[in-house]
Design goal:
mainly alpha, Arc Repressor Mutant, subunit A, 75% helix, 118 residues, single chain
């Protein structure tokens, strides 16, 4: 069981490193690119994400992006569009849709309501 915990931590670290790379170059995160970044086949990546996180690779990446966006909205004065880009979303519409789906309010409402949308 400790091996699985260590494997999960290593997998999450690799996802975080990949997302940091995406944030740095302001590009959208993609599961296929994550597999390449880690150096494994996409099919193996999908199995690992499901086994270790209980989520699809896309859902795991999206959850981490949204967690970062929520934190940035709480802690910075960056514009909502900047937060979207800094969280690895490729465009405004995708960011707003994903955020509203996860938090049941827009990023602006989230910030105004002091992060109390849920």
């Amino acid at each position: 069981m400790a091996d699985e915990g260590q494997t999960r931590e290593a997998f999450e670290r690799a996802m975080d490193e990949y997302l940091a790379h995406c944030y740095a170059i302001r590009t959208a995160a993609r599961a296929s690119e994550l597999a390449e970044f880690i150096g494994i086949a996409r099919s193996r990546l999908v199995r690992m994400a499901t086994r270790l996180l209980g989520l699809s690779t896309k859902a795991a990446l999206r959850r981490r992006q949204l967690d970062r966006a929520a934190r940035l909205l709480r802690e910075t004065s960056d514009t909502v569009d900047e937060v979207g880009m800094l969280s690895g979303f490729g465009d405004r519409r995708t960011f707003h849709r994903a955020f509203r789906s996860a938090f049941r309010c827009s990023p602006t409402e989230f910030r105004v309501r002091d992060a109390k949308c849920l």
